[in-house]
Write a structure and sequence with these properties.
By secondary structure, the chain is mainly α. Helices cover 62% and strands 10% of the residues. It folds into two domains: 153 residues, Ribonuclease III domain (Ribonuclease iii, N-terminal Endonuclease Domain, Chain A, Orthogonal Bundle); 68 residues, 2-Layer Sandwich (Double Stranded RNA Binding Domain), CATH 3.30.160.20. β2 and β3 form a beta hairpin. α4 packs across α9.
């Protein structure tokens, strides 16, 4: 099988030549692809993802610890914002991961959210592959160039805060008011309820969300309101 596209990717995007190219190919191989090609493909990227996740957390922790003096709680929130699915899937997109993904036919038709998760997992797996093939410094270089450079934007936009805290700061800044959450609807039996919650600013509905608890509904509503503010 011709894997030249993966070596080209390694040279152009990662600035390395893989000694064991199969590691990189595996990093792009989703479990669903293995299930469809059982006779020829035997390994998916989840073990590499497990390793890469640990390397990613160490690199991001080291970066924040070395460059900022904030207390542990804030650094933890900042790290979470750096390594969350949305952040690392966006990094994978910027580095053109998608054409190299090996997915089943069904996964290729999946939702945007599912594709985001697949890209994020593949990013971590590539970090794991880099770590095994070229060591910690190569993995750190890739993470620094592809991800850590976005931290300035995370700070400026306030996206490191949880949605409710971020919305409260934004609403108070732009509208001079504190968001108010109201349950719009409850459905289902007591042991399995679903709550739809609306968030209002100065009496105007800014967003609504649904979840298995009032708290999760509030979080979803806050996310929807933040999206409205950003439009």
């Amino acid at each position: 099988m011709d894997y030249s596209a993966y070596q080209t990717f390694a040279k152009e995007k990662l600035d390395v030549v893989f000694k064991d190219l199969q590691l990189l190919v595996t990093a792009f191989t989703h479990r669903s692809y293995v299930n469809e090609h059982r006779k020829t493909v035997f390994e998916h990227n989840e073990r590499l993802e497990f390793l890469g996740d640990a390397v990613l957390e160490l690199v991001s922790t080291e970066y924040l610890f070395s460059n900022f003096t904030e207390p542990e709680g804030i650094l933890t929130n900042w790290r979470s914002s750096l390594v969350r699915t949305e952040s690392i899937s966006a990094a994978a997109s910027r580095y053109d991961f998608e054409p190299l993904l090996r997915l089943s036919r069904g996964e290729k038709r999946g939702t945007d959210r599912a594709r985001m998760q697949i890209l994020a997992n593949s990013y971590e797996a590539v970090v794991g592959a880099l770590y095994l093939d070229h060591g910690y410094d190569a993995a750190k270089k890739f993470i620094t160039e592809s991800l850590l450079g976005t931290f300035k934007d995370i700070l400026e936009t306030g996206s490191w805060m949880d949605p409710k805290s971020h919305l409260q700061e934004l609403a108070q800044s732009e509208d001079g008011a504190t968001p108010e959450y109201r349950v719009i609807e409850e459905v289902g039996p007591d042991h399995d309820k679903t709550f739809t919650v609306g968030v209002y600013v100065k009496g105007v509905l800014k967003g609504q969300g649904t979840g298995p608890s009032k708290q999760s509904g509030q979080q979803k509503a806050a996310e929807a309101a933040l999206a409205q503010y950003s439009e």
